[in-house]
Amino acid sequence: MNMSVHFDPELMRRYDREGPRYTSYPTAIQFRDLPADCYATAATSSAGARDGSPLSLYVHIPFCQSPCFYCGCNKIVTRQIQLADPYLARLFTEISLRSAYFEANREVEQLHLGGGTPTFLSADRLRSLIDMLDRYFRLSNASTRDYSIEIDPRTVDETYVRSLADLGFNRISIGVQDFDPPVQEAINRVQPVELVQRILDAARANGFGSINFDLIYGLPLQTLSGFGTTLDRVLAMRPDRLAVYGYAHMPHVFKAQRQLVQTQLPNASTRLALLQLAVNKLTGAGYEYIGMDHFALPTDGLAQAQRAGSLHRSFQGYTTHASRDLVSFGVSAIGQIGALYIQNHKAMRDYEDAIDGGALPSLRGVTMTVDDVLRKDVIQQIMCHGTVDIGATEARYGIEFDAYFEAELPRISSLQADGLVHRDVARIDLTPRGRLLMRNVAMAFDRYRPWEQGTGDQAQGDGGRADPGQAPMSRAI
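Now predict its structure.
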């Protein structure tokens, strides 16, 4: 199919509504209290347990040295690094508790550390964490592994980057956000271009095969000229991947955002123009649009997986490792074991009390129904590949597509009339205009969300950018 992308400002305005990011289906809004034995049941009955397939691990490190005023992550701000030690001790206990549910021969193909700022931890503390994971799980040495960590470039130097490579990490994500000094001052994240370049050079020198930059548009004092300069500097650095997020201003939810001056935020038309500028510059420079906020060079694993039809979307975002049980550790972290999604306590005190009582610190989740599994598959096809293969879906689930999705057909017709999709007997394909609005197409198959035909309107969500375990609601632009 045609994987090109076309920015249509009129369509983007019409469909600018809040909606899920579909890092899961059902989304976290549907999570509820679960039976005490649900984790054991899921771990023994998942397909991965039956065939001994590899695992994915996620570890949440909630600490940061200073607050970034735009941030919506689950975090604790402190400059006292030793305050992480009690958390690490409990994290080690959780690792040992959860490991008992999985066969020791299941290799860990994918590992991701998020936060907060994982590089808040000293190199010695980080090594202790990796050693503990390796003690209870089978960490991989294979060149195909995907071991990634989020980096605040203000917290690392070349020696630290080398230590990450020594620990087995082969992919990093660097928080850039914007290079414009007034914007950096406004969001309390001052980091010169030269600092980011130095960390990027160190990562390349130490063999990191895939380097991602995070950018944010819609921040205070951003202008087309200033953000254009940031994009030009980023393109000169040529990271393998880019995530370009839209800032969600929700000061009633995230206290740090109350430090921002609301009148300095770009208006709706400027915000839309900032996104259009990013899309045009990145695709014009040879980056492929993967989906949602993500772009990658044709040589990067994400782009290769999309072309091969093996791209997957999970709580870690877009990933090249599909259909893996995801074992997650730490406060607020969400995992998936078979048909079970399960989230840890969000409050640190509750997390600590559970661990100290010898229990898994799980708070809530959901077990997917047969209908959920089917709809998740359809949504994954849209979010990862920009198409729904009707015949293959019918064969996998023993359904007649139009009969099963009878209630959704008018929504698809409305999307087709607006030029977001093309439908024939074999497929539903996103058009180049529709690819930037793939979430709106996916929502047509989401039975948990209301839909107003022809407008793209959905119920308001709880917004904001959060850690990979949060599956937040956010606006299309």
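The chain has a mean pLDDT of 92.
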